[in-house]
Specification:
A: 1200 residues, alpha/beta, 7-stranded mixed β-sheet, 5-stranded mixed β-sheet, 54 helices, B: 104 residues, mainly beta, 8-stranded antiparallel β-sheet, 8 strands, disordered C terminus
């Protein structure tokens, strides 16, 4: 008889389990088992993966959880309950009753061991429902930091089905329970009393004793002798005993990983965990032992207990009995793959949902296609009919109505929203207002979104303003009811940096040493650490260290271990967190189907992640907070604030006017711009895009995209769709971009594998770019229909399924008469691209905000940049967008105590020649160390007429006051005084004065007394300042700004390095375009972006972008340049780069790097003096603005 | 009690149970049923590598407590033997009872 493991933690028991559900299921099946349990700690985190793994391996899944048991703090484990002090000992526990138990004050509860809880199967989900609810109980937070767990009373209450009163859960009380833990020190009475309490409180048929032996030293935890005692207790009380191995890893090799996880969980090095009070597993025997090995363990226990074969048989048989009652049918017990959507009555629909959906589509026709008739109408109606039929067949009408409801609700909140994803392929979505893209106009295929062959719920994604996302979530909870909504979670696994840190912790290594190593790990998986050490130049030094440490028996011998342990941790889940956008919608049974726990947001979060949605039939709505939407919403508000009428907006934005001088209709009379109504053919917008000065624009600001934009030179909206779809790993990897561009610019003739494919591929000049084209290609060459074509497309790239697709494609295309070479050629394209490509509907949906952001930058750059600074949406550090304003000639206005608010505001500036223009005022919000309350007080009491006035009414801390002075926030007050009194004191004098004031609240010498009217005469404090110190230099000011704002405001930070740059002979960004291709130049700047995209052929290429004040320079480091630059690649803030110019298009130029230096290491730079050994001129050694600041991450976006 | 780490030769029966051991040129025969358990090793101090998939025996070793007599006669001595799970090599790690003079 095969043995069934009933206590198994998978890797989804964070910081505990080692092996993945697939590994465990495969191993169990290989050993001949026909069932396997998954009992992760604290939740069902790995359960759905376990279900799938069991189904694939032909096992019956068993589902459970490993939970802490809570009890009143007074009834401590090691004190005998009978003699426990106070009145809340055993008696109260007994008297509190089953149902009242939930209301005992949780703050007095503490953990008393752990038990395994298994759900019974074959009872139409009653067992699974009880398990789910129990786990949600365990996570309910009565107060912050209350422990996760349940009381025995809660367990007892859930173990019986409330309707049938049948047992639906089995609790395994084993070595980690209060009973098992009480066995330490060979006590006899306490464990017996504890076990008797379980026996008394748990309903009949819901309790079993868990017998475990890891064959540890006699008397130790998990020893055979302890197992014997547990077995005897069970026999004595007539409780069934089950044998488990409390599994944490699939095979014995995982034991060391489990040790490291124990260390990471407790944040304690292994040595400290090993003794003097051992907290690690006693040995490495907790693997998924074979049936034979488990029988040996059982035999050893039985023999040590002095029992015989009959008892051995009974122990193994009772294990299988419990296993049998816990076998789950994924479909009837857990609702496998059965889509559940909210009851339509919730959204106020009483009749048939399909009728309602049809009515709403009809209503939408008038709105979306006014005056449509003739052939276009026939085409449109046929499409609508087609979509509605499929929706009807799948029974998804209520799903569409639900999404439409959410989408309408968001718009009613006044929040910017845009549909994203393949939902844009649906005419129904367009008609009922979910999406804003006309699928007929852009030739989008419905089957890419939904088809009769695809029974899973389709994804509809909605982008909203990031700043409003939480409000939107709360409204969805309100609208549908808390019992139908929960947030989706996501698993966060170990990546290289986290893994090396925790491996270092386990080994007790110095935190800084490990930190230094961690910083060099850049975008590779921890599993390949050793491989990376051999290949990556930035790891060369570390690799040498490891090499040197070998043999030498020093502390450094740990480095080799560090690498091994890091690799072991790779990808293991660390914790779950709220998914950035997933909201799960269900009917009133949702919380019977997924356990929930608190999220950081206060709203409940499901323990299931995105991979679990489809199997569990859950409807997930992606409501993604997009900062760019917030930035654009902010920009539109700034436009109307500064230009409160249509005429002013038209003038400021240089918008087109008609013959009567009237501006466009998307601007309303009060100056409000309806961004979604802006026509998609604005020439200045495309001009801006073609200029490649697209920093800040959605999707097209990255170095790679700026290069592609420069080559592609978009002229119309469809070009933007193509551009966005091309800039994906797939097309970049399969080298489609080059032929596409050559055909587009007419350098090479368009080539079609077969004339029949021309209609499908013409829009992209014969190159396959979109999923939609893959579908059409399949359909044209095999006649399979679009629905089938999408199934075929999904199988591409799947090792198991692709051969069948190829066979089908070749055979059918051959029967349809296509030549072999045509078939070969087309198959190669499909194969290399099909799985990677981009759905055109995605591209179209993305291109809308791309166009809108470029439109704002072209017409209202000040408001747009203010929005970007405010919401910081892009990939770059904010300072680069400040530099962009400087490049565009937009005045950047310093922090000012009267003019600055908590936001970046657009402001009119009077120029020297008397004219006005728009500038952007620095916000107080970014100021280091200024609290939210201080900021509010400052803004509320504006304006101020003196330092004393400010001190009295704004009441900021002394350090904050000084920082404001350092930034020049009082300079305007000071300047006014200077103008009146002729005082010539400097900003430095003011700072010195503020520092000289005695601290403490008692000092009010300069402050008016209470009740005294503050006379707006002179600021005595400022006018009495003595002129002692010189005004801070520009370099000093910029350094202060970098330290306090992480921005260079007064000037570009590179300006201070001018003498050095001249001595080095560097070329600036704005001059590069005038150079021939292949010119050797030196460039220098501050790092703004670092990327290592996947490349064709597997060779790594590093892109580093630097900003020198005149623009960005994008440098490409190929293998040789990486070798030469070594640790500089990822470790430096300011770079000097020698390289060759590479012209990429009419407006594009980039740099192929040959070598790089750290600009702050003056002695290593290729200066003439350094070669001859002569001392350098002093001005070359003067520290620049960036020297001595610590805000590296915020300034460069890189924590090198 | 003496603490050791010395190689010993152990002969086992077919079922894996030790029968006799050779230590310091002498043979000891088992005189009672041996007890076996698995004991943790502080592998992170003792090893310089712990590569994934390196195999069994990293985290624990098999310990046998055997009682044996010199040449099958004399007093029963209690030995703790460790067997490396990977290599199968035996070591004497503890010798109980009044045999301290022999540990030098």
């Amino acid at each position: 008889m095969a043995f069934t493991h009933l206590h198994v933690s998978t890797a989804f028991s964070a910081h505990y389990g080692v092996s993945w559900p697939e590994q465990l299921a495969q191993a169990a099946a290989a050993d001949g088992a026909d069932a396997l349990a998954c009992t992760d700690r604290d939740g069902l985190y790995g359960t759905i993966k376990h279900l799938r793994a069991c189904m694939d391996a032909g096992l019956d899944p068993i589902v459970g959880v490993d939970l802490a048991v809570l009890e009143p703090a007074e009834a401590l484990l090691n004190s005998s309950p009978a003699t426990a002090p106070g009145s809340t000992g055993r008696e109260q526990v007994r008297d509190s009753g089953l149902l009242q138990g939930r209301d005992t004050g949780r703050e007095q509860l503490r953990e008393a061991g752990r038990v395994v809880v298994l759900a019974h199967g074959g009872n139409r989900a009653a067992g699974y429902r009880a398990l789910v609810r129990l786990i949600s109980d365990a996570h309910e937070q009565r107060h912050p930091r209350s422990p996760v767990g349940v009381t025995v009373e809660q367990l007892a209450a859930r173990a019986i089905d409330p309707q049938t009163l049948a047992p639906v859960l089995t609790v395994l009380v084993g070595p980690s329970s209060d009973v098992g833990l009480a066995m330490g020190g060979r006590k006899y009475l306490l464990p017996r009393r504890r076990f008797a309490r379980w026996h008394r409180l748990m309903p009949a048929g819901t309790l079993a004793a868990e017998i475990v032996s890891h064959l540890s030293a006699p008397g130790d935890h998990l020893s055979t002798s302890s197992a014997v005692r547990m077995l005897k207790l069970a026999t004595e009380l007539g409780v069934p005993a089950v044998l488990t191995n409390a599994v944490r890893y699939c095979d014995s090799d995982g034991a060391a990983t489990a040790d490291v996880l124990d260390s990471a969980r407790s944040l304690t090095p292994l040595t400290a965990l090993a003794g003097p009070e051992p907290q690690l597993q006693p040995n490495g025997q907790g693997w998924l032992k074979t049936s034979r090995q488990m029988t040996d363990v059982a035999r050893e226990i039985i023999s040590a207990a002095g029992l015989g074969t009959a008892e051995l048989t009974r122990l193994l048989a009772s294990t299988e009995q419990v296993a049998d009652r816990c076998r789950m049918d994924p479909v009837t017990d857990m609702g496998w793959k059965q889509p559940v959507v909210p009851e339509v009555s919730v959204i106020g629909i009483q009749h048939d949902p399909l009728t309602e959906l049809t009515l709403r589509c009809e209503a939408g026709i008038g709105r979306r296609f006014p005056g449509i008739s003739g052939t276009p109408e026939r085409v449109m109606r046929a499409r609508l009919q087609h979509e509605l039929q499929i929706i009807d067949r799948l029974g998804f009408a209520s799903y569409f109505l639900t999404v439409a409801e959410v989408s309408q609700m968001i718009l009613d909140m006044g929040v910017r929203a845009a549909a994203r994803g393949s939902g844009a392929s649906s005419l129904v979505n367009y008609l009922i207002g979910i999406s804003q893209v006309d699928p007929l106009r852009h030739d989008l295929i419905f089957e890419r979104f939904l088809s009769r062959d695809r029974s899973t719920l389709p994804d509809i994604d909605i982008d909203v303003e990031s700043a409003e996302r939480h409000n939107v979530y709360s409204r969805i909870f309100e609208r549908f009811g808390a019992e139908r909504v929960t947030l989706m979670s996501m698993q966060n696994g170990y990546r290289a940096r986290g893994a090396v840190r925790d491996a270092g912790l386990a080994l007790g290594m110095d935190e800084d040493d490990v930190g230094t190593i961690a910083k060099q790990l850049w975008r590779f998986s921890a599993r390949k650490f050793r491989e990376a050490m051999a290949e990556k130049p930035e790891l060369r030094e570390f690799s040498d260290q490891v090499e040197r440490s070998r043999g030498a028996r020093t502390r450094h011998q740990q480095l080799d271990l560090l690498v091994d342990l890091t690799e072991r941790l790779d990808r293991l889940p660390r914790h779950i967190s709220m998914h950035p956008c997933g909201v799960i919608l269900g009917d009133s049974t949702l919380l019977d189907r997924t356990p929930v726990q608190p999220s950081g947001l206060g709203l409940p979060m499901s323990q299931f992640d995105k991979h679990d949605m489809d199997p569990m039939g859950m409807l997930k709505l992606d409501v993604l907070g997009v900062r760019m939407q917030s930035a654009m919403a902010y920009a539109l508000r700034e436009v109307i604030r500064i230009h409160p009428s249509k005429a002013e907006v038209v003038e400021a934005g240089n918008h087109p006017v008609d013959e009567q001088g009237k501006g466009p209709s998307f601007i309303s009379d009060d100056g409000r711009i309806e961004l979604n109504a802006v026509p998609l053919d604005d020439e200045p917008t495309y001009e801006l895009i073609r200029s490649t000065y697209t920093l800040g624009c959605f999707q097209i600001e990255s170095p790679g995209q700026r290069e592609l934009i420069g080559k592609l030179a978009p002229r119309e909206f469809n070009d933007l769709i193509i551009d966005i779809s091309l800039f994906r790993p797939g097309p970049m990897k399969s080298n489609m971009v080059k032929p596409f561009l050559e055909n587009r610019h007419g350098f090479a003739p368009e080539v079609y594998p077969h004339p029949a494919l021309k209609p499908a591929l013409a829009e992209t000049h014969g190159v396959t770019v979109f999923h939609e084209q893959v579908l059409k290609t399949f359909d044209i060459m095999t006649g399979c229909g679009l629905a089938r074509a999408d199934e075929l497309r999904r199988a591409l790239g799947n090792e198991a399924k692709e051969p069948a697709v190829e066979e089908y494609f070749r055979r059918t295309a051959r029967t349809k008469g296509y030549a072999l070479d045509v078939i070969d050629q087309v198959w190669d394209t499909l194969k290399s691209f099909g799985s990677f490509g981009f759905c055109k509907a995605h591209g179209a949906a993305f291109a809308v905000p791309t166009y809108q952001s470029a439109w704002l930058k072209a017409h209202h750059p000040e408001a747009f940049l203010a929005g970007l600074w405010e919401h910081d949406p892009g990939m770059y550090p904010r300072r680069l967008l400040v530099a962009e304003a400087r490049r565009m000639g937009i005045p950047i206005l310093p922090v000012d105590i009267n003019a600055s608010s908590g936001e970046y505001r657009v402001e009119w500036v009077l120029q020297k020649d008397g004219s006005k223009r728009l500038g952007i005022r620095m916000s107080l919000a970014g100021l280091y160390g200024l609290s939210g309350a201080e900021l509010k007080r400052i803004v509320a009491a504006q304006p101020y007429d003196s330092l004393a006035d400010f001190r009295t009414r704004a009441k900021v801390s002394r350090p904050a006051m000084k920082r404001l002075a350092q930034l020049g926030a009082f300079d305007s007050l000071h300047a006014a005084v200077k103008g009146r009194t002729g005082s010539s004191a400097s900003r430095a004098d003011m700072i010195a004065h503020l520092e000289s004031l005695p601290s403490g609240a008692g000092n009010r010498r300069w402050d008016p007394m209470a009740g005294q009217l503050h006379l707006p005469l002179e600021d005595l404090e400022l006018s009495n300042l003595q002129n002692r110190l010189p005004e801070p230099t520009m370099t000093e000011k910029v350094r202060t700004e970098l330290d306090l704002l992480a921005l260079d405001v007064s000037g570009h930070l590179m300006t201070s390095y001018q003498p050095l740059l001249e001595a080095l002979g560097v070329t600036t960004s704005d001059k590069l375009l005038g150079l021939r291709s292949n010119t050797e130049v030196m460039v220098a700047g501050v790092r703004v972006a670092t990327q290592t995209p996947p490349m064709r052929g597997g060779k790594r290429v590093v892109f580093i972008s630097i900003d020198d004040g005149t623009g960005c320079i994008d440098a490409t480091f190929f293998t040789e340049a990486q070798e030469k630059s070594g640790p500089l690649l990822f470790g430096t803030r300011m770079l000097l780069i020698r390289g060759l110019t590479r012209r990429t298009g009419p407006r594009g130029i980039s740099l192929q790097a040959l070598e790089a230096w750290d600009l702050s290491e003056t002695a290593t730079l290729p200066l003439p003096g350094n070669a001859t050994g002569r001392p350098l001129a002093p001005e070359l050694l003067t520290p620049g603005a960036f020297d001595g600041t610590s805000r590296t991450l915020a300034v460069t976006g890189f924590n090198g | 009690m003496g603490m050791f780490t010395q190689s010993v030769e152990v002969s086992c029966a077919q079922n894996g149970l030790p029968l006799r051991l050779e230590w310091q040129g002498r043979t000891y025969r088992l005189g009672a049923e041996p007890v076996r358990w698995y004991e943790r090793r502080n592998w992170w101090e003792e090893e310089s590598r712990a590569a994934a998939g390196a195999g069994a025996g990293l985290v624990d070793s098999e310990i046998w407590r055997v009682q044996a007599r010199l040449d099958g006669q004399g007093p029963l001595l209690t030995f703790d033997l460790s067997r490396h799970v990977g290599s199968g090599r035996w070591r004497l790690i503890r010798l109980h009872d009044a045999q301290q003079q022999r540990t030098a």
